[in-house]
Every structure is written in structure tokens, then in C-alpha cells.
Amino acid sequence: MKRDMSLIREILLSIEENDEVLPVEGFSSEVIESHVKLLIEALLIERKSFGVHSFVTVTKLTWTGHEFLDSIREEQVWNTIKSEFREAGMSTIIKVGKDLAEGFAKKKVEAILGS
């Protein structure tokens, strides 16, 4: 299975909004679950296991998860990541998202201040 960054973003937005992972149109529950596991491995979300069968429930975004989601919320940042960094590792994408968001914010501040 290839990682789908659009699905990653949808899952993070779902957790932020609903405190759970909701179904995403066009993706099977197995694919969504695999991406949730990737987000856990990347330390972007937390989970708890319950019972003998280790039923997994996502509990929340981590601090890093919130920071990453904030950085990719801006469409310009998100579109750049999707087009230019789709094959990059998650740690690279997190760093690039933060750097791009800071760069775009700096340009906005300069435009406001007339610099």
C-alpha cells in the first residue's frame, strides 16, 4: 500500500473535528486503518488498545499532530507538499510543511506591513 497524503490530511482533520476517525469517501476501512497506523508511528496521533482483541481507538492528536495539521491547513502549503514532496518521508513532509507555512506567513506579514 502506498501512503496517500490526502487521506492522511483527511484523517487528521477528522480527528481534530470529531475526536475520532470517520469514514472517508473513496477509501476502504482497511486503507484508513493502515494510514491511522502510519500516523501513530509518526507520533501525530495517540491511541489506546482495549480488551483481549486489542481494539484500537484513536484518542487525540498529539502536539506534533496539531502543529503539522496547522501547517498543512493552508491550501498553498498543502498543494506544494502534494505536488513536490509526495514521495518524501513523513519526517521530511512535517518539516517542509512547517517551513512552508512559516514562509507563507512571513510573506503575508510583509504584505500587511508594506515591506
TrEMBL record:
InterPro entries recorded: DUF2513 (IPR019650)
Pfam families (UniProt xref): DUF2513
Protein name: DUF2513 domain-containing protein
Organism expressing this protein natively: Vibrio alginolyticus
